[in-house]
Amino acid sequence: MPKQRDLRDLRVHYDMGTLSEEDLAPSPLQHFRAWFAEAAAAGLAEANAMVVATVSPDGAPSARTVLLKDVDARGFAFYTNLTSRKGAELAATRRASLVFPWHDLHRQVVVVGETVEVPREEAADYFASRPRESRLGAWTSHQSRVIADRSVLDERYAELAERFPGDVPLPDFWGGWIVVAESVEFWQGRASRLHDRLRFRRTRADALLDDADAWIVERLSP
After folding, report:
1. Residue 150 located in a structural domain
2. Which residue has the higher pLDDT, 39 or 4?
3. pTM of the predicted model, to two decimals?
4. Is 215 buried (19+), middle (13-18) or exposed (0-12) by CB count in 10 A?
5. Is the pLDDT of residue 2 over 80?
6. Fewest beta carbons less than 10 Å away: which of 49, 78, 206, 217?
7. DSSP per residue, 40-79
8. What are the beta bridge partners of residue 67?
9. How many domains does the chain have?
10. Which residues on adjacent β-strands are paired with residue 61?
11. Beta strand pairing call for 107-117 and 61-67
12. Of these residues, 5, 8, 11, 193, which one is catalytic?
């Protein structure tokens, strides 16, 4: 176990940049794409990794890291087993928050919004683009369920590889979710922990991420 002093001495001096209102692109989609391009160009490992936070109907929170697979005017899309814990919670509450933790750039992006399922034809198109092993893995795992040991997965994977010697179809329990943003916050680390936090907040329920006229920018205290 790390000592308490060791944990308290783990400090980073945030000095890589600033973020002003004048720096922002006209819409949250444009600014996110610009920052994402910088994160990818900087060589960050899995720059599309994001923490997805959900909540159960009785208020129990949960969070996990998944990969962003698309972002467009509708919102931020990822794919998963629809019967998993996050799938069940999203189906019940239709709410989620995303965090992109780009530590090496002293940046993060926080998204809060409603969720809708990715249309099945889009999910099928993405599923078909995945490696065969990943498609078999999607069939193999009853995600979030308790299993006796690792052999349960290994045996089921082998059975499915025989069942689907060629194409591996989209399972009916697998698909995607789009987080339709109500707010998108861009965070830039600054000295003295006086970080820059600028948030795009939606002013119309039907606003798209690239609709510059439907968002206002607010500066938040760090």
Report:
1. no
2. 39
3. 0.93
4. buried
5. no
6. 206
7. HHTT-TTTTEEEEEEE-TTS-EEEEEEE--EEETTEEEEE
8. 49
9. 1
10. 55
11. unpaired
12. 193
